[in-house]
Amino acid sequence: MKIDKPDDELYAIIKSIYDDLSDEMELRKHFNPAEILGTKEETFYEAKRAILESLSFGQYAFVTKGRIKKVVMDDGKMVQIQENRFFENWVRS
């Protein structure tokens, strides 16, 4: 398959679109439940996992919503982090 290298003007457009989507989806940020939870006992999160855009239908994002919670084990010395997803669906954004 032949792939053409874009000129500087087209590359700037492609890069701008990528940077915008990267920021919106937090692509440079790892999904780390312990980091999201921090010092809290429980917290909720929302993450965009995919984005589709079209001129005719606008933008849709595949969104995941969930809860992250610290669970203290029976001996009281170990802590487990529990992640429960309660929503996954396409959402118009």
Give a written overview of the molecule.
The chain is elongated. Strand 1 (about 40-55) and strand 2 form a beta hairpin. The two termini are about 35 Å apart. A 3-stranded antiparallel sheet has the order 1-2-3. The mean pLDDT is about 95. The chain has helices at about 10-25, 35, and strands at about 40-55, 60-70, 80-90. By secondary structure, it is an alpha+beta fold.
Topology summary:
Blueprint: H1 8-25, H2 33-37, E1 42-54, E2 58-72, E3 79-92
Antiparallel strand pairs: 1-2, 2-3
Keywords:
single chain; 93 residues; alpha+beta; 3-stranded antiparallel β-sheet; 3 strands
Describe the structure in brief.
This protein is an alpha+beta fold and 93 residues long. Helix content is 25%, strand content 45%.
